[in-house]
Each structure stands twice: as structure tokens, then as C-alpha cells.
Amino acid sequence: MKMSTSGLVAILNDPGADDFRKAKACQRLGVVGDDSAVPAIAALLGNSTLSHYARTALEPYPGVAADAALREALGRLDGDLLIGVINSIGRRKDPRALDALAKLRRSEDQDISQAAEAALGRIRSP
């Protein structure tokens, strides 16, 4: 049974839906979703269980809404969740994230610094 974007977003927004259903909804939204799904997906970027699924849903999105959501997450995440978002920004090659990534490159956390450096390299390469 195929589910609409709005149905998949409803799963993400449902506090009673388990992580498995939300992960599957993210996977499907990465294929069939549109900009209307981005806020619900972005809300999961800070969830240690679902962040990876949220990022893999946002990475293939053609619109700028996914870029904006990932850039916004830079200011509210830390540790491995932040590194994941940095990697996703690098994969999307978002030039509007250059300044934020340049600041993160100077992070005292070596893993964050290295992730930012790698993302900058991906964005700047032709």
C-alpha cells in the first residue's frame, strides 16, 4: 500500500508512532517526499535514534528547503548528530553553509573540525 506524503508526515508527527515506523516513513519520504515534509523530517535531526534516517531523507531532496533545514540544525546540535548534519551538508554541496562550516572547522572537537573540513572540500570542489 502506497502512502501519500501527508500520510508519511503524519507518522513522523505522531508521538505514538514507534521509531521503526518513523524510520520507514523517513526512508519513503527520501524517495517520494516534497518540501512539505521537510519540517517534520528536520525535527528528527536531534533524535539520536532517527537522525540518520532524517538525514538520508533530506539528502536527495532537490529543493532548498532541505538545505535550510540542515543549516539550521548546525546551530542546535552537537557531537555525532552535528557531525552527521555536517556530512549531509557536504554531500548536498550547499554553498550557503560555507561560513558556518568555516567556523566549525575551528572547533576544538577534532571530529567536528575534520567533518567541517571535509564538507568544505566537497562544496568547493567542481
C-alpha termini separation? 41 Å
The number of helical runs is 8
Order of helices and strands: HHHHHHHH
Quickly give the CATH architecture. Answer: Alpha Horseshoe
CATH topology, anyone? Leucine-rich Repeat Variant
Beta-strand content: under 5%
Radius of gyration: 15 Å
Q: Which word captures the global form?
A: globular
Kindly provide the name of the CATH class.
Answer: Mainly Alpha
Q: Mind describing the biggest β-sheet?
A: none
Query: Averaged pLDDT, please?
Result: 96
User: Runs with pLDDT <50, length 5+?
Assistant: none
Structural class: mainly alpha
Count of individual domains: 1
User: Mind telling me the CATH superfamily name?
Assistant: Leucine-rich Repeat Variant
Structure keywords:
126 residues, mainly alpha
Task: Describe this structure as you would to a colleague.
This protein is mainly alpha-helical and 126 residues long. The protein has one domain (5-124): Alpha Horseshoe (Leucine-rich Repeat Variant). Helices cover 67% and strands 0% of the residues. The protein has helices at 5-13, 19-32, 38-42, 51-58, 64-74, 79-92, 98-105, 110-124. The protein is globular, with a radius of gyration of 15 Å. 37% of the residues are buried. The mean pLDDT is 96.
